[in-house]
Design brief:
The structure holds two protein chains of two kinds.
Chain A lengths: L1 E7 L5 H9 L16 E7 L2 E7 L11 H12 L4 E7 L3 H12 L5 E6 L1 H6 L3 E2 L1 H8 L3 E3 L8 H13 L17 H14 E2 L7 H10 L5 H42 L5 H19 L2 H17 L1 H15 L4 H10 L3 H7 L6 H10 L6 H14 L4 H24 L10 E3 L8 H20 L1 H13 L13 H13 L6 H10 L4 H11 L3 H11 L2 H13 L4 H11 L2 H28 L3
Parallel strand pairs in A: 1-3, 1-4, 4-5, 5-7
Antiparallel strand pairs in A: 2-3, 6-8
Helix pairs in contact in A: 3-7, 5-7, 9-10, 9-11, 9-17, 10-19, 10-22, 11-18, 12-13, 13-14, 14-25, 15-17, 16-17, 16-23, 16-24, 17-24, 19-22, 20-21, 21-22, 24-26, 25-26
Chain B lengths: L10 E7 L3 H9 L7 E7 L6 E5 L2 E5 L1 H4 L2 E3 L1
Antiparallel strand pairs in B: 1-2, 1-5, 2-3, 3-4
Classes of the chains: A alpha/beta, B alpha+beta.
The structure holds guanosine-5'-triphosphate and magnesium ion.
Amino acid sequence: MKRVALLGMPNTGKSTFFNRLTGASAKVGNWPGITVDLLSANVLLGSGMVEIVDLPGIYNLHGFAEDERVARTFLEENPVDLLLVVTNATQLDRQLALALQLQELGQPMLLILNMIDEARRLGIKIDEQALVDDLGVPVVSVSAKHGFGMDNAQSAIIEALGKAHPARKAQLEKVFHEDDALASRLEQVFHDAVQVPLTATDRLTDRIDRVLLHPWLGLPLFFLAMLLMFEAVYTLGAPLQDGVAWVLEAIKTDAVEPAISGWNPVLQSFILDGVFDGIGTVLSFLPIIILFFLFIAIVEDSGYMSRAAFLMDAFMSRLGLDGRAFVMQLMGFGCNVPALMGTRVMRSRGLRLLTMMIIPFSLCSARLQVFVFFTTAIFSAWAAPLVLFSLYLASFLAAFLTALIYRKRLPNAEPLLLELPPYRFPTIKQMWLRGWREVAHFVREATGFILLGVILVWALTHSPFDVPPASPDTLAGQLASLFAPVFAPLGIDHLMTIALLFGFVAKEVVLGAMAVIYGAGDTDLAGIVSGRTDWVQAYSFMLFVLIYTPCLSTVAVLKQESKSWRFTGLAVGWPLLLAWMVSFTFYQGARWLGF
Amino acid sequence: MTLADLPTGQTGTIASLAGDPEIRTRIQSLGLRIGRDVAVIRRSRFGGPIQVRIGTTDLLIRPQQAAQVILA
Ligand SMILES: Nc1nc2c(ncn2[C@@H]2O[C@H](COP(=O)(O)OP(=O)(O)OP(=O)(O)O)[C@@H](O)[C@H]2O)c(=O)[nH]1
Ligand SMILES: [Mg+2]
């Protein structure tokens, strides 16, 4: 099978193009460094199947960040039939440099001028024929986002593949450092082919930046926007969640219960109290998850993340980090795993490890479910979003404190150089793709190891079967009393301790486990929990959930990316200790104050 | 004068690049090449990064690195 590799500078739309070409749903975002690993898909082009490979962006062939290494290694180790060099057509003055460098590899190449829609809007005129003449490679203009020119791109790929060339591996060491000859060639090609009007700037972006990057208003606006987002999660998401929970409850009482009424009581309990209540409680959060990820998709595609780096860099640099580390924290709000992978753009090992140390404190969507549940059960409707907001602030504080403590041990001297792309807005299709990705992920997890966790909790809380579920005589009860000396000073009772122990696997399991432990579906669970816990206990519990290890996948990725057991041990052990200390201080302090 | 000293809102022409080769290569890839005009759009507070514009590219650069971009 022929192989085509997508190469180009970061944030030029390689993944968007890849998705268009193959129908895949690679992650897209207006931030340089969204793709940090290889991704390939097969597609029928012309008369044969072709493997298309999406690579991380590279600025040149000499970069040594982990993501750039992925791209370099791929080129060196895999024969490629055609290089698709994707450029941002509005920035050819610098983007053609990479195309010229890649040409020195002598491999067949096709130059894609992407974002042609933006180039046209800015009044940039590109003479494709002049580019073809100067570079000697075929050139196609496309807008991968809106789909213009994709037919031409396809036929150009088919044509280029048709010219028989044995596929070759690249010999990168042969390409010399960016030299004067290349620079003057670049000037020449650009001069021949591209005309940029004098004031080719995106006025709307400038106008928005004047507000969002305002020296005094910038950060307050950021936090205000965050608060509004949580208000929206409650006002829009909570009713939807209640709806799903109500439907699930109806299915349980009207369909499942009658169907299995004659069965063995242990089996009945397993199906109803274990699988159905456990998984049902987790699934009832699906609408909130979708809503939340749509917000995240808009934020990630807007280009705001680079602005957040601008606003926070001065502060972060005092913690031994940089603005990008703050962006990774924001990415971690969705899920910590891609955020950890995203640190591959950092070249200094110290900076990278320190950032990986703080990302697990980011309040991810799984923890959000636990907090939405507890805040709605315990606090009044107006207080709940504020309580949630305070947990996000606590998540930042825990991260900053950690950086402060470890910055000396993980030193960093990396300069910050970051593109500030124009503001963009995702298309409906992009949002749909993103929403779908997250739903698929969520459902896969809920039916995979979350189900396993829930079943395990059921087994522990129901054996032996003849005593009340989760009572001190059950296996779970005995396990909980073992941990009682640790958790009792935090105000966390033995039933919630079981949920915490299983929450180590994934935070989604916490609620599933509680549903099983209390033997209640989502709708009744809130009442039971609020009857048994006061707000001080609940908040102490939430602080612990916030700070201790997010999930096993995070631990696996920490190990995979750091390649160090010692670091992984530290990145798991320290948050456990911190979680305990913070919950202890809060709980005892609040009780001492008389709450 | 260096890019770090260029007042906000003004434009200068890059004369040379100092600093170690690796960073120089990265700076060049982002469009800061000798002979190009560069403008300072805004500065962040507390000595944070500077937003600069070269042609149609906007960049964030810290003052330390901006000081390695020598203007004519
Ligand atoms: N206006 C416009 N925007 C585009 C086009 N193609 C991609 N984008 C946007 O550009 C941004 C970057 O797209 P990606 O596909 O993630 O870019 P990438 O090259 O894969 O980026 P990295 O993986 O970070 O190297 C996203 O906000 C896209 O929506 C296009 O043709 N026109
Ligand atoms: Mg990509």
